[in-house]
Amino acid sequence: MSDPVRDMEAAASAGDIDAQAAAWVAERNYADEWSESDQARLDAWLDQSPAHKVAYWRLDAAWRRTEWLSAFPAPRQEAVRRRPLPAMMKLAAGFVALAIVSGAFAAKYFASPHERSYSTPVGGHEVVSFSDGTRIELNTDTVVRTLMTSDQRQVWLDKGEAFFQVNHDSAHPFIVTAGNHRITDLGTQFVVRRAAAKIQVAVEQGRVWLDARKPSQSTLLMPGDVAMASANAVSVTHRSKRELDSELSWRRGVLVFKQTTLAEAAVQFNRYNQRKLVVSGDDVGRMKIDGTFHATNVDAFARLAHGVLGLTVAENGNEIVISR
Known about the structure:
CATH architecture of the largest domain: Sandwich
Order of helices and strands: HHHHHEEEEEEEEEEEEEHEHEHEHEE
Number of strands: 18
CATH topology of the largest domain: Jelly Rolls
Radius of gyration: 23 Å
Largest sheet: 13 strands, mixed
C-alpha cells in the first residue's frame, strides 16, 4: 500500500525540480548574453541529479517547439523576430504552474519517449537513420541528442561534428541547435561542427537558415556557403565543390590536405587519434604539405614528414614529436 504522505512529498519534490528547470530554460534561451560562467552554473545544477537533466531536457524541448512555431514564421525573413521577453516569462510561469499544480499531467504531456542520444569515440564514425528518411552521420568524438516525433524533429549537437541529410518537410521543420545557434533545414545536406564556443555550418546541397543569437546576424546559407559563428559574430565565405568535398572527406575516412601547414594537419589528425602529433617549432609548423591520408594513420603522416620533408620524428609516450 502506498504512503500518501510520502507520495505527496515526492510530488512536491518533482514539482520543485520542474519549477527550477523551467526557470533555467527561460534564462538560457532568452538572456541577452549567455556567458561561460552562466553555462557552468547550469551544468552544475544539471549534474546534481539525473532528475534535473530529465526535467530540463523535457521542458526545453517543449519550450523550443513553442518558440519556433511563433518566432520563425518564414525562412525568407532577414531576421527572426522573437516574442517580447515579458511574454516569454509568462510562458515560463505557465510551465512552472503546470509543473507544480499538476506534476503528473505535466510529466505525461511533455514526456519525450523518442528522445535519444548518440555518440562516437575518438576516431569513431556512425550513421543514424530515421523513419522519415533523414540520416545523421557522426564524425569523431561527437555527441548528439535527437527528438524525432510525428510533429517535431529536433537535434542538439552537444559536441563534435555531424553531417545531416534531411528529408524536407515544411510542416515539420528539422532544427539543429548548437550552442547559441539554430540551423533550420530548407531541403538540405549540410554539416555542423561545434568546437568550444564556435560553430561552423557548411551547406553541400539545398539551403539552411542560420538563426544567430543576434537576430540581425541570422542568414540564409546556399550551397557552398560556410558560416563561422560565435556568440557575437557570424561570417560567411564560399567554397568550391572541390574544397567542400575535401572538408567532408572524413565521411570516407580520410583527410585531404592541399597546401596545408603541418600545424593545421596535426590538429586535424589529433581529432581522430589517441596518439597525438606534436609539431615542434614555428618554422616547422608553417611548412606545407599535400596528400590524402586515412584519418587514423598517423604513422603514414609521420613517415612523410621524415622521408619527404627531412624532419626528425620521435616517439614520446603517447605523442609523436615532429621537429628539425
